[in-house]
Design brief:
This protein has 249 residues and is of the alpha+beta class. The chain has helices spanning 20-36, 139-147, 182-194, 207-220, 242-248, and strands at 66-68, 75-80, 86-89, 103-107, 117-121, 132-138, 149-151, 153-154, 173-177, 199-202, 226-227, 229-232, 235-238, 240-241. The longest helix is centred in the N-terminal third of the chain and has 17 residues, at 20-36.
Length: 249
C-alpha cells in the first residue's frame, strides 16, 4: 500500500476563529498513522528471534559437576549387570562392588547435566563427607565405559569339544562372542570405532570356534564360562577391559 504524503494547508485571510488552530491540527493527526507505516522495518530484538536460548532469556549453562550424598539425595543408580544388561536401583548397597566404578546417577531433585550427557560417578570410595562427585560423559558412551571395566557375560560351552589342531594365526585380534551378549556388542562397537581389524566368532553357532576357545583357555589356564574372550596376538583376556585392551593394542 502506497504512502500518503502530507499536503500543505492554506490559511484563511478572514478573521481567525478560536477553533482555527485545532482545525488545522486535525488533518495532520489523522494522516500521522498512515505515515508511520512508511518507516523502514527494524530487525526483531534478540529475545524475539528463534533458535538457541541466549543469556538475555535467563538461560543458565548446565553445571560441569554435581554431588550425590546418599543419605540426603534421592537418585536412580544405573549399573552394568549380568549378561551386559543394565539395572536400576535407588539403594547404593544394591550396586555390586564390581560394577561401582562407573555408575550413572539420575538425581531426582538435583541439577541436570547438559543435553546429551549423563551424570556418572565412581561409587567405590566415598569422600570425607560421605558423598560422591558426579561428572558428565556423553550418553552414547556411557554403556561402553561401564561395560569396559572387565565386565563379561556368563556362557556355557557345548560338551564333548575336541581341541583343534594348531593353526597359523588368522588375525591379530580374535573376539569369541555370542549373539545375546551385551558386553560383546559394546566391545565390537569399540573396535569398529577405533578402526581395529578383528575376526568375530560366535561360540554358540560355530562348534569349531568353541573348541578353539577352549583349547586357548586351557593353554592359558583360564576359565571358559564367560564372553567375550579376546585374543590379541596370543594374549588372551576374558571380559571387556577397556584400559587393558588399549594398552595391548
Amino acid at each position: 500500500m502506497g504512502c500518503i504524503r502530507r499536503t500543505s494547508l492554506s490559511r484563511s485571510q478572514g478573521p481567525r476563529s478560536p477553533l482555527g488552530p485545532l482545525l488545522l491540527l486535525l488533518p495532520a493527526l489523522v494522516l500521522q498513522a498512515p505515515l508511520s507505516g512508511c518507516a523502514p522495518e527494524k530487525p526483531p530484538a534478540p529475545e524475539q528471534r528463534g533458535g538457541a536460548e541466549t543469556p538475555a532469556q535467563g538461560a543458565e549453562a548446565a553445571p560441569e559437576t554435581a554431588r550425590l550424598v546418599p543419605e540426603r539425595d534421592k537418585a536412580v543408580l544405573t549399573f552394568a549387570g549380568e549378561r551386559g544388561a543394565f539395572q536400576d536401583t535407588n539403594a547404593l548397597e544394591k550396586v555390586p562392588e564390581e560394577a561401582r566404578g562407573m555408575v550413572r546417577v539420575s538425581l531426582l531433585d538435583g541439577p541436570r547435566p547438559a543435553p546429551g550427557k549423563v551424570w556418572v560417578a565412581n561409587l567405590k570410595a566415598a569422600d570425607e563427607d560421605g558423598g560422591y562427585t558426579l561428572t558428565t560423559v556423553p550418553r552414547d558412551q556411557y554403556e561402553e565405559l561401564a561395560l569396559g571395566q572387565g565386565r563379561s557375560s556368563q556362557v556355557t560351552l557345548p560338551e564333548g569339544l575336541e581341541p583343534p589342531e594348531v593353526k597359523p594365526r588368522e588375525a591379530d585380534v580374535i573376539v569369541y562372542k555370542t549373539d545375546w551378549c551385551g558386553v560383546c556388542k559394546q566391545l565390537i562397537a569399540y573396535l569398529d570405532r577405533k578402526g581395529v581389524p578383528y575376526v568375530a566368532k560366535d561360540i554358540e553357532k560355530d562348534r569349531a570356534a568353541a573348541a578353539e576357545l577352549q583349547a586357548k583357555a586351557t593353554e592359558k589356564g583360564l576359565k571358559t564360562g564367560s564372553v567375550p574372550v579376546i585374543d590379541v596376538r596370543g594374549e588372551v583376556m576374558v571380559g571387556f577391559n577397556r584400559a587393558r585392551l588399549e594398552q595391548i593394542l
